[in-house]
Fold this protein.
Amino acid sequence: MASISQTVTMAFDICVSCPGADADVIVEAVTIPLERRLSAIRGLAQISAATWDGESNITVEFELGCDMECTRHDVQAVVDTFLKGLEGRLSCARAGIGPVEKGLP
């Protein structure tokens, strides 16, 4: 059986829960501004997002060779700072940041 060559990129999923908020509010208040802040992290290769009522999900992919622990720390710091800035304007809580293994043929 022939082996399939893959390039693996490092990626993180960021889920932000905003109970009771509709998708349009979340896009404007969470998804777009958080994408902008995350795009400043060194080594970012791609960012994608999906938003629906009550939740925003952003996936950030980083170039090969990035230090996973340092990058995770940077992502966590950006998200935590962003959510603190929302306090009093929109009730959101970080549902989680988790690594994603992405394979590219």
In short: Residues 1-6 have pLDDT under 50 and may be disordered. The chain has one domain: 15-104.
